[in-house]
Amino acid sequence: MEIPISGFMFHSDNSGQMHSHELLITQWDGMPVQGHVHELRGVTSYDVGHNHRYAGTTEPAPSGVQHTHRYFTFTTVDDRHRHQIRGVTGPAIQLPNGGHYHEFSGFTTVDGVTPHRHSYSGRTSL
């Protein structure tokens, strides 16, 4: 049995020997698949005498199925520099009254006059 699907293909950030793509399905068997995004924001760890704030929006992911989201943003400029924040959220955590959120965590890029990085973690918006 064949089920027609359609969607968008994204280039993977994998830098290994295997080249890959990620598919965001927008239609399954003639029915639209709803996509959604989440906001993320927070404050990095305090390192080398300062911290940074960050805010961003995840990439779209399909609704109604287990999924994760990729994210990418920059921190605020503090102490004359900024850092990149990039990663993939954890799986969806369902709420009893509907909706869900994702947890995320990681480390920023190494930047600054005194090279350093910050840790960050949080939960996305619903």
TrEMBL record:
It comes from the Bacteria. InterPro entries: YmaF (IPR024307). Pfam families: YmaF. This is YmaF-like protein.
